[in-house]
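Notes continue from the previous slide.

Worked example: a multi-chain complex. Inputs as given:
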Amino acid sequence: MSILVVGSVALDSIETPFGKKDEILGGSATFFSISASFFGKVNIIATVGEDFPKRYLQLLKERGIGTNGITIAKGKTFRWEGRYEYDMNIAHTLATHLNVFQDFAPEIPHALRNPNILFLANIDPDLQESVLKQVKRPKLIACDSMNHWITSKKRSLEKFLHKVDIFLLNDAEARQFSGESNLMKAAKAITSKGPKSVVIKKGEHGVIYYSRRGHFVAPAYPLEYVHDPTGAGDTFAGGVIGYLSRAKKIDDAIIRKSMVYGSIMASFAVEDFSVNRLLGIKLPDINRRYADFKKLTRF
Amino acid sequence: MSILVVGSVALDSIETPFGKKDEILGGSATFFSISASFFGKVNIIATVGEDFPKRYLQLLKERGIGTNGITIAKGKTFRWEGRYEYDMNIAHTLATHLNVFQDFAPEIPHALRNPNILFLANIDPDLQESVLKQVKRPKLIACDSMNHWITSKKRSLEKFLHKVDIFLLNDAEARQFSGESNLMKAAKAITSKGPKSVVIKKGEHGVIYYSRRGHFVAPAYPLEYVHDPTGAGDTFAGGVIGYLSRAKKIDDAIIRKSMVYGSIMASFAVEDFSVNRLLGIKLPDINRRYADFKKLTRF
């Protein structure tokens, strides 16, 4: 099944205890699409500035990712600067320059208006809604959000969530959105607000999948080396959605497996800066780590 | 197989967002033994003061727990006062009155010097060593420790750990003991210091079992209601050791199951103050939650 992702393509400047990198490839749609590209066909809707390096677009194309929906707007590319502490759960945003992303109003090219799966990465919920209006109802709609929209556009977000099959957010966002400290209560409260299911991403602590039909919990793949957690959540989503895109029928068993594939993809992403580690692996590496995870967790 | 536990029996005064309780039954040996008593025969070595309520000793006896090793010393019982924040991972010690526990020098009665399994709860590593000298080499030796001993008696602890099969500690202690922030690196570093295996208890985030032969990771049983996390770690240990005490042969599969039984026992303990919830359940409740956890985590 074809996947359409709407999100950001950005240039990140990142400092972690393991080094500092300037203007490296980042953005939610970037991490998502590269992760999903191991499993299926993905098209990106995003906007970049005239300064966006051609080699990065080339890199996406070479992975079979559709880039026709990436518009090159007048101005500069969205930039994010961040620093992680020794405990890399603690991130500090040093600067956010929205640049051309400020005026991002996604227009879906005609050829891309019939996706099987739609993933709306973290953007203004009004824009998420506007995308939905432009496409033929996909078989599966998933979305992400963030603290900023939960604070400033909660009503829009809640309205939009009624149309969503899988709502992905991290633990802090889940607590904020629901007003519940306990994550199981938070998951229950969120699903009562509209989405068919919610996925709470807990980073190194794993994931909770919660739907009215059933729940699934999994630890993260345990790593000895974490070099840069940027993009882990979007890479997770790319693995989940990518895996689901291969399924003939999306049932409980497939969803559980997709969560583990998402975790495995994220475990690779954080082992190096930007998408570097993802570019260095192949499907057998992913399957090997999946089998390893199965061994690590079975009882 | 018979289990001998050496640790504390105490009176706790606890404040959580769900209430405040004074002078309730606590202590590492208490939580451990009640948890393990669902699976096998446990004897306690501990000391209490003359003020220790008889009904608490009675309560332990009624569960088949051997209390002959609990000495009643002149003075007052060990007391701990603590307060938990809304995020119950954050605990504040308000007061610690060691009282008779200050001079605790465990003497093992002759009849108890041949345990199959020995669990040395969190006490001075020199005392842990002294207990080991008094008993015939058990089939399995497990122990816990805490930040205080890691700081003040690291050398004693390290020397002692060479004799230990399973070393249980929480994530903060594992980081402190190893000097490694990453828990997989911490686990590796700790096992290189002597114990055959290490169990890192991550509270609501689950558990890591690490030995030179293999590893196991599991999430915690997801709960909607956590009322008091006091004793969760010792209850976990009681479930692990209790389950192992029933095994004919302790192999990898049994160890994995024991970790899950430990998690399940801890999940009950935190649902109420003191040992109240543990006293209200029976083995079928435990097995039901175990089966539920299996369903929740399988993929």
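Summary box: The domain at 3-297 of chain A is CATH 3.40.1190.20 (UDP-N-acetylmuramoyl-L-alanine:D-glutamate ligase). The mean pLDDT of chain A is 96.
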